[in-house]
Amino acid sequence: MPVQYADVVAWVKAFASAIEEGKDYLTQLDSAIGDADHGTNMHRGFQAAVRKLEEFPGDDIGAALKGVGMTLVSKIGGAGGPLYGTFFMQMGTALAGKSELEAGDWATAVEAGVKGVQTRGKAEPEEATMLDALLPAVQALKESVGDGSSLEAALIEATEAAEGGMKATIPMIARKGRASYLGERSVGHQDPGATSSYLLMKAASDVLATKNAS
Amino acid sequence: MKKLINNPEDVVTDALEGIQAAHGDVLKVAIDPHYICRADAPVQGKVALVSGGGSGHEPMHGGFVGPGMLDAACPGEVFTSPTPDQMLEATKAVDGGAGVLHIVKNYTGDVLNFEMAADLAREESIEVEAVVVDDDVAVQDSLYTAGRRGVGATVLAEKICGAAAEDKRSLKEVADLCRKVNGNARSMGMALTSCIVPAAGAPTFDLGEDEMEIGIGIHGEPGRERISLAPAKEVVERLAGPIVDDLSLQQGDNVLAFVNSMGGTPLIELYIVFNELKKLLSGRGVNIARNLIGPYITSLEMAGCSITLLKLDDELTRLWDAPVTTPGLTWGA
Known about the structure:
The structure holds two protein chains of two kinds. Chain A contains eight helices and two strands; from the N terminus they run βααααβαααα. In chain A, α1 packs antiparallel against α8. Chain A has helices at residues 5-33, 38-55, 61-75, 80-94, 103-121, 131-146, 151-168, 192-213, and strands spanning 3-4, 100-101. Chain A has one domain (3-213): Alpha Horseshoe (Serine Threonine Protein Phosphatase 5, Tetratricopeptide repeat). Chain A is an all-alpha fold. Chain A has a two-stranded antiparallel ribbon with strand order 1-2. Chain A is globular. Chain B folds into two domains: 13-184, Rossmann fold (3-Layer(aba) Sandwich), CATH 3.40.50.10440; 185-320, Hypothetical Protein Tm841, Chain: A,domain 3. Chain B has helices at 11-23, 84-94, 108-123, 153-166, 171-183, 232-247, 267-283, 314-321, and strands at 27-30, 35-38, 48-55, 72-78, 100-105, 128-133, 185-191, 211-214, 225-228, 254-261, 287-294, 304-311, 324-325, 330-331. Chain B has a six-stranded mixed β-sheet with strand order 1-2-4-3-5-6, sandwiched between helices. In chain B, strands 9-8-7-12-10-11 form a six-stranded mixed β-sheet. Chain B is globular, with a radius of gyration of 19 Å. Chain A binds chain B through residues 35-37, 41, 73-79, 81-83, 85-86, 120-121, 173, 175-178, 180-183, and chain B through 33, 76-77, 79-86, 107-109, 112-113, 115-116, 139-140, 144-146, 200, 219, 221-222.
């Protein structure tokens, strides 16, 4: 069953709720290696993004996701704003004018979003960043879709890959952002950005699993 | 937390309204989104200078808006980068047709947000160049970190480039000059006490009664080492030594010595620091040709200081001496 406009809105809302629930945890992860604002900033940004989506009457998924991206850029602040904002803006560009998505569209759009994050942040894999959750997720998504899996199955694979990638940041030395100033002392800490990126992938599989069950 | 505020969430907006009330003759404050620009912006035919960063470092950057220095400043929340929509609006407000230079301190958030703003401005056909300032020798500069932080040299770059822009130099020339200032300036700071971010309500870090942090960042980021309190002479050796080495200062060099308060340290102590710095540099045959002493790039109420040295040549000296009229720096006009 293709993804509808309402499903995409539900995904963003589900992620906003996950952030609301997890904001103290994200901030706690950030306070160990950064500046203790990831949870608060993401919460502020996604609350605004949900309000923005409610103003969108149409069914253009691309336009709505671009709107989300622009809102995040102006509301999150710090490094998270440009990175999450770019993810949604690039996804929106890839889906311009679409009101219904097949599994392949979803995979293409997520890949475009992640490429945008990589270009903006200039990070490489294994530097303990968002990309360590996002890149394995994209890889899993593309492979599953390529093998002819259902979107639901592909999203579950992607979430598992993101979770593995998130946990893999624990023993890594951070090479980007504020955590990089800690050098070896950043080892042993799960990256907050990789954690929120895992939640983003998980929100997608949660929403579509619920949809197919109902 | 003891602070002269109304509400932690309103700190930045309330302060901006105060800046407008006090300095409306030289600047104007926009509230949605937040930015401060010259009252006479845009100045036609002049390269415009835009800077910005988290609030809490006053007078930087808003206090440096005015003739001879910045055309606009974008204040973020306290210690949080401003966002591209602010930077874009500020860039549009000050573009006088000769292009806009973004002066960016090297923090990941600031750099990414300014890059997005530059992309958005270019889409609107405004010519933008950005220079990232990274002068803090306390941080190891390597491929494996986000690089050195931008601190005291930012103030000097804004002043010197502001003067060059008033001389109607081109965007490329002003950007090259900014890189030259950055390349010839190094800084290091220290803290005696922590600061308290209003929204957090508690000290950012704990420092014992008998301790100080050498190499502190302007947001309370950890430095090189935490040591026992020591006389000003020894503190100056620990701060200035690495700067002199990193700049490879030679006998006969002229420098601008900038002794800055982190916010809580009084001028009387800054003069003691300056005197020790003068003695240290004299011992190496380095001449302090210009100085700047006071609170210019602060970290809320943190007690401590930073030292910045800029190696001067005739061009930089002349541009430093050129007139400036801003709430934070004024001379010669």
